[in-house]
Specification:
Largest sheet: 4 strands, antiparallel
Distance between the termini: 24 Å
Structural class: mainly beta
Helix content: 10-25%
Order of helices and strands: HEEEEEEHEE
Strand order of the largest sheet: 1-8-3-6
Strand content: 35-45%
Radius of gyration: 15 Å
Shape: elongated
């Protein structure tokens, strides 16, 4: 059964998709948050912890560099329409102080019945 939300998101990205979510513990060394996937149409990084997190596509620079996902509710959103190929890259994260965690939601394109 298709819901209004499913139809809306499908229309935005022009096809079928699945949403995947996970929680990732972030370390003071680089942590792979999502591996490269060029079927990824969008991703959200939400910081529900009490420490800032920095994310970056590819190899993450040391220290407090990268895109800040602020503590206690900061969010970074990527989508293929605005961010082009960046959304498909490996994304790493780091923090200056642990513990830190991100909720990661990915929108992945799929084609049912296509080999």
């Amino acid at each position: 059964m298709s819901t209004s939300l499913h139809r809306f998101i499908g229309a935005q990205f022009g096809g079928n998709y699945e949403a995947q979510n996970k929680s990732v513990d972030i370390l003071t060394t680089k942590t792979l948050v999502i591996p490269h996937n060029f079927n990824r149409l969008g991703a959200n990084f939400a910081n529900y912890g009490s420490n800032d997190v920095y994310v970056w596509p590819g190899e993450l620079p040391a220290g407090a560099k990268g895109f800040l996902v602020a503590a206690n509710g900061g969010i970074l959103t990527l989508n293929a329409r605005d961010d082009l190929v960046l959304v498909g890259y490996d994304w790493y994260a780091t923090t200056l102080t642990t513990p830190a965690s991100l909720l990661v939601v990915e929108i992945i394109e799929y084609n049912q019945g296509v080999a």
